[in-house]
Amino acid sequence: MSSSTVRISHSARQNLRQLSTRVGKPMQAVVEEAIELYRRQLFLDEVNLGYASLRQDPVAWSEVTEERAEWDATLADGLDDE
After folding, report:
1. Does residue 16 lie within any of the structural domains?
2. Enclosing domain of residue 49
């Protein structure tokens, strides 16, 4: 695995060291997990913005709710739960 150096402030490094000690993981693992969590949060923020925009369009939002109703009907397809 390749690696690179990223400069962070002294206080960020102290926080990273404390988190690393607290969770019992190497600092690199803590950074990688933090980046993944941040990536996921940004994705969800963007999805939420998209839905907020969609809700501003009554026709488009109506189409979404109609499609959801169609999908909800598939839950009652008569098949036994496994």
Report:
1. no
2. 28-74
Asked if residue 44 belongs to a domain, the reply is yes
For residues 17 and 27, is the Cβ–Cβ distance under 8 A?
yes
In a 10 Å sphere around its CB, with 0-12 CB exposed, 13-18 middle and 19+ buried, how is residue 46 labelled? exposed
Q: How many domains does the chain have?
A: 1
Q: Are 31 and 19 in contact (CB under 8 A)?
A: no
- CA distances (Å), origin 44, targets 1, 8, 27, 63: 29, 26, 26, 22
Q: Note whether residue 10 is domain-resident.
A: no
Model confidence, pTM: 0.74
pLDDT in tens, 35-69: 999 999 999 999 999 999 999 999 999 999 999 98
- Is the Cβ–Cβ distance between 20 and 26 less than 8 Å? yes
Flag whether 66 is in a domain. Answer: yes
